[in-house]
Amino acid sequence: MKIRMSRMPLSLLTAMTTAILLVVSVCIVYFGVSWMESDLEQRLLDELPPGAAQAYNDINAGRMPQDGHLRALVNNIPRIQEWGEREVDISIITFGAIAAATCSLIGYWLARKISRPLELLAQATEDLRAGDFAVRVGSVRKGAKEVATLMKTFDELAAELESMESRLRFNTMAVAHELRTPLTILQGNLQGMADGVFPLEQERVRQLLVQVEGLSALVEDLRTLSLAAGQKLVTQRGAVDLAAEATQVLGASRTILASAGLSLEVALAPALVSGDSQRLRQALLALVENACRYASSGGVLRCETGARGADEAFIRVLDRGPGLPDDVSTHSIDLFWRGDASRSRATGGTGLGLSVVQAIAKAHGGRLEFAARPGGGAMITIMLPRESAA
């Protein structure tokens, strides 16, 4: 029967290996000495004088030996006893050495079967340290249960590092892409004014200030995401009524809603959560601005707050715009992600709005949910853990 060592804990595997080696060594010594004993009697007779040997044979045959022969046997007992003990000691040492050598070979073979996955893991770790995030150990049949778990964990860690490295590379390229256009505009205009090609006009300066404001918004959004990555986005918590916070944000947003041609509908039910009121207002404002940029064609924006069950509260923004892609509910909101081709830089956004909202929701122990609104449009919900009214 084949033993699947990879299914055994390391402690049990070590104990079983030790026990097996002890049994093997005892068996080798026992059967070896027993085999030597079968030849020991004949060798004993060869060592005795003829008369003593005859007396020994007579006694074994049940006959009375002659007096002279018996006396010779008695006289040789001390010497024969010493010789027999020496032969037994030599047999034990010999077969003990054979047992040690045999168990060493078996132990080495078993140790190689156990340690081979660790060697693979050590090599994979070196490759990972050298920057090869695609390295994987894979599943192996050899090794203890803890080793198999360690290898599985390593593969999961390597996959996560590869994903993080890929996201970092993408985000770096995305940031560079988003910064390039406004910086190019600023550099070209400033260089032109410095060279006297462009006149220093107030309108041109205002246009450049718009680019600077866009850069400032981008930097602030990136700073928010950086704080979220460092678990420092929400540092002060208190009891917050989502309805009250939504009232403040929507009241301050009436100007941008009007300029986007959106009328406002509200259904604000009290909902207490534990959180940072400033960050929650920032998240709601980002959703409102997102709707103003991308869903102004719908003509109406609806905001709801309330509770879902006994454990969750929500802020929901609904529009009648073009909606979001069908797979947005499972889409990973990367930096500068936009739902469709029309959601481009031309709308004036940084592309970080939903990323910031998602980061704020996660920092509060919540999540961001997306759904298609019945009748057309998008429905974006911030779900948060509910604060007890007590």
From TrEMBL:
Pfam families assigned: HAMP, HATPase_c, HisKA
Gene3D superfamilies, alphabetized: 1.10.287.130, 6.10.340.10, Histidine kinase-like ATPase, C-terminal domain
Catalytically driven reaction(s): ATP + protein L-histidine = ADP + protein N-phospho-L-histidine
Chief location: membrane
Localization, UniProt: Membrane
GO molecular function: phosphorelay sensor kinase activity
HAMP domain: residues covered: 112-166
Boundaries of every Histidine kinase domain copy: 174-388
Enzyme Commission number: 2.7.13.3
Cross-referenced InterPro entries: HAMP_dom (IPR003660), HATPase_C_sf (IPR036890), HATPase_dom (IPR003594), His_kinase_dom (IPR005467), HisK_dim/P_dom (IPR003661), HisK_dim/P_sf (IPR036097), Sig_transdc_His_kin-like_C (IPR004358), TCS_sensor_his_kinase (IPR050428)
Membrane spanning stretches: 12-33
SUPFAM superfamilies: ATPase domain of HSP90 chaperone/DNA topoisomerase II/histidine kinase (SSF55874), HAMP domain-like (SSF158472), Homodimeric domain of signal transducing histidine kinase (SSF47384)
Transcription as UniProt keyword: no
Record key words, sorted: Kinase, Membrane, Phosphoprotein, Transferase, Transmembrane, Transmembrane helix, Two-component regulatory system
One Gene Ontology term, aspect cellular component: plasma membrane
Coiled coil: none
Protein name, entry field: histidine kinase
Protein source organism: Ensifer oleiphilus
